[in-house]
Every structure is written in structure tokens, then in C-alpha cells.
Amino acid sequence: MKYTFKRKSKQCDEDIKCKQRYLFQRFYEANLWLQHRCVTWLEQKTAHLSAKSWIVILFCFVVFTVSGNVYLIVNGLNGKNSKSIDVSPISRPTNRVVFDSKQNQLNRSLSKTELERIVRFQIYMDSLGRSPTGKRVQDSILQYRPALLDSLIMVENYYRSQFKN
Asked: Distance (Å, rounded) from C-alpha 125 to C-alpha 139?
């Protein structure tokens, strides 16, 4: 019984591949037919043009495309665009904490999660200073809690000294 099911699945796979090939062939034929129709239409529309008019058309096309490209290159190199992109340098966070493998092994209680929350908050505070709106939020936090970052660093040092022993 298993043998018959395998035969059907193989036949089904081959049948699907055959249908896909047929479908791709039909798309290819439709594409060729559409190209042929476009070519005949364009030939009918341009049958009355002489060789001189073709040269003039080609010359105009080359002049317009070259002048457009030169304009774009000169505009890009001058840097006087009003839509220019401001690039800010990438900075490292000042309160970076490196987790050691020993610390991860020793610290599996609630204090580890607290330390991770403190570190995430420090990273959040560092990232606020990178945008104008974030800078305003950071300034308002530091205005109402002036010793907040110092306290976080002290707590972090306490946790580190606790688990180094």
C-alpha cells in the first residue's frame, strides 16, 4: 500500500513540473507576441521618417541625456542641496558594561535582572542624546534628578564588588 502512494506522489510531482513548464512557455509566447505587436506598431508610426530625421532625433536624445547627467553630477558635487542628508558620527556609550562569563554563572538571582535593568536604562539615557527631541527629554530627566546617573554607577559598582568576592 505504501508503494502505491509513493508512485502517486512521484507522478504528482512530475505533473506539477509539467504544468509549470507549460505555463512558463505560454507566458514566453505571450511576451513574444506582445513584443511583435509593439514592433509593428512602432514601424508603422515611424515609416515616414528619413535618415536625416533619425540622425537629428538621435543627436537631440544624446544632448538631452548628457546635459541632464552633467547637471546631476555637478549638483551632487557642489553640495548646495537643501535636501542633503546630515551624517552624525557614531559614538560609544559612556556607561558601557561588559558581562563576564563568571558573573553570569555566579549571579542567577534577582540582582542580575536588576543590574540588567540598570544597564538598559543607562544605554537608553545615552541614546537620548543623539536626537534633538531625545536631548530635551534627557535634559528634563537630569534637571529633575541631577544625581541619577551617579547613583546608577554607584549601584552598578556595588553589584560588581559584591560578586567579585
From this structure: 10
DSSP symbol at 84 = P
Same structural domain, 32 and 59: no
Q: In this predicted structure, which of 5-9, 22-26, 88-92, 148-152 has the lowest mean pLDDT?
A: 5-9
Q: Cα separation of 122 and 95, whole Å? A: 6
Q: How far apart are CA 150 and CA 114, in angstroms?
A: 16
Question: Does 74 share its domain with 37?
Answer: no
Question: How many structural domains is the chain composed of?
Answer: 3
Q: Which domain holds residue 123?
A: 101-164
Burial zone of 115 (CB within 10 Å; 0-12 exposed, 13-18 middle, 19+ buried): buried
pLDDT of residue 121: 86
Q: Other C-beta atoms within 10 Å of 135: how many?
A: 12
The predicted model scores a pTM of 0.32
Is residue 3 in a domain? yes
Q: What is the pLDDT of residue 67?
A: 97
Is 153 among the domain residues? yes
The verdict on residue 33 lying in a domain is yes
Percent of the chain whose predicted confidence (pLDDT) is above 90:
29
Cβ-count burial 57-90 (b if 16+ within 10 Å, e if not): eeeeeeeeeeeeeeeeeeeeeeeeeeeeeeeeee
